[in-house]
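INFO batch 0412 | record 1 of 1 | parsing
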Amino acid sequence: MAFNGLREFIRSLENGNELIRVSIQASPELEITEIADRISKSRGGGKALLFENNGTGFPLLINAFGSERRIALALGCKNLDSIGAEIEALFKKLSIPRTGFLDKIRFLPLLSQMASWMPKSLAGRGKCQEIVMKEPDLYKFPILKCWPADGGRFITLPCVITRDPETGIRNVGMYRMQIFSPNLTGMHWHKHKTGARHFERYKDKGMIMPVSVVIGGDPSYTYAATAPLPDNVDEYMLAGFLRKKSVELVKCLTNDIEVPCDADIIIEGYVNPQEELIWEGPFGDHTGFYSLADWYPKFHVTCITHRKDAVYQATIVGIPPQEDAWIGRATERIFLAPMKMTLIPELKDISLPPAGVAHNITLAKIEKTYAGQGVKVMNALWGAGQMMFNKILIVCDQMADIKDYEAFARFVSDVFNPLQDITFSHGPMDVLDHSSARFSYGSKLGIDVTSKFEEEQYTLEKCFENKIDTDICSSKISEIPGIVSCNLRLIGNGISAIILGITKNDSKALDRIVADLLFLDELKGVKLLAFVDPGLNIYDLEAVCWYVSGNIDPKRDCRILKPFRKDEVAHFVMDGTRKSFKVDAFGREWPNPVVSSPDTIARIDKLWPDSGLGPFVPSPSLRYTSLRKGGEAVSK
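INFO prediction complete | emitting tokens
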């Protein structure tokens, strides 16, 4: 289904009881974020929010993609799996040999259908150019300052259009944009992204780089900008496929970039690659931690146009789950079929748990037919586009259910042998990963829990019957110096793991704690010991998974300990605590987790009864405030 601008999508949301119009005055600086964070973390993702009273002339739409139902509606489908099934069917049709004349004739309707998805250039102006700002001023829009330690206000859902200066091929990416003046922003494209590669090519040629930014329009435009498409595949072709209608494009007024004619807002301009970079950030990022300030290109705004009825669309990111988790779910379901058909034929399913913030944790199910296939799939996935950023990859076969996370954890607990199932690798990491010893380069952890063939010389290590008296065991653990808290509940649920909150005062503190723990007879059958900082709720398993996966460089922070006794299992230790130079010889700055300020929380608490937002929802930030060290982006 194609939407003619955000207003039409908003009507669909409202008709489906998926939207709340927020009429109270809410500031784009911190207040909208705090409200959206509470709603997006509500059961099922809450509802989309339209802030109509935000101090500007433009309504602000947020959390529009923040549930499975809403992201499916945005992409014009009943459920996300149907898109993947359609892609798979299309691939199969395209791959059938056609030798006879009649076979080729029957193929023509499919070619015609595909042609109807291709972007189309139109003459004249589009709806997105109904209003032209004579003096471009970004402050006319309700651009968010999301979190207290952010460097400023950021455009958070921009579709940034660039072109390769050699081939002319278009790319649409999503890169945050910090506002520095009415007509100047940063352009935060990472070195691994296509926009950054285009920038380098313009720089080599000594050319000015035209750039245009699209906000709003059909929701498929925004999704396509986030999609992990191969280089040189036009994102607007994907949008055309999703909406079953070509994206109609018009030329910008001050550069040669083409933009969707029915978009809500267009920001035209350029980047000068010869110009000095600008100090951009910090920014409360989708990892749940601040990404720290760094040097990025300047984007100069030459023109702003918009529809008469334009809506400004934004999102917030931070500690999961947030709206971006549902965008990630769409990517997971849509791109399973292409990965299976072009790269990993044995791949049956894939899951990106929200706690893994898209790239920290991946679960993959395969159909295994030969020895070593689990590790083969690990290497294939780590070499597949944005999967190169993955940090923890668990590969299983048909015996496991990767959608039921508790059942999957129980399955892994039963079959996992730390001595035989672990693979470490090294490679590129996301620029936003704060835990790797080196910027954007670190280690990866692969866990192969597939059924093993005889050639793999595998010994199945079952957990020993661990009938632990948790009260006695907890009492013994509490006497160990450095341990602040301990969660033994997983053992009662058939999961051979314990989670401990600890303090580390020197480089040997963790070694002493582990040695003292494994001296206890009660823990001889426990396979996993995960350590976190005091202040984290160790009974909130999603929070623990987010915190540990975000804070480890696997080869540095994970240890495999051989059993000391015959009736003992091998142990896998994960140090998910904050790292410092003093204790861990960690040389980079460590960021704080992203939370609201007490003043903002108090203001929204006071506004809530009159907001029309439903029953009171306490601030999610209250669960994580104690993890902060100091009030800035950098942990002190």
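INFO post-check: The chain is about 30% helix and 20% strand.
INFO record closed
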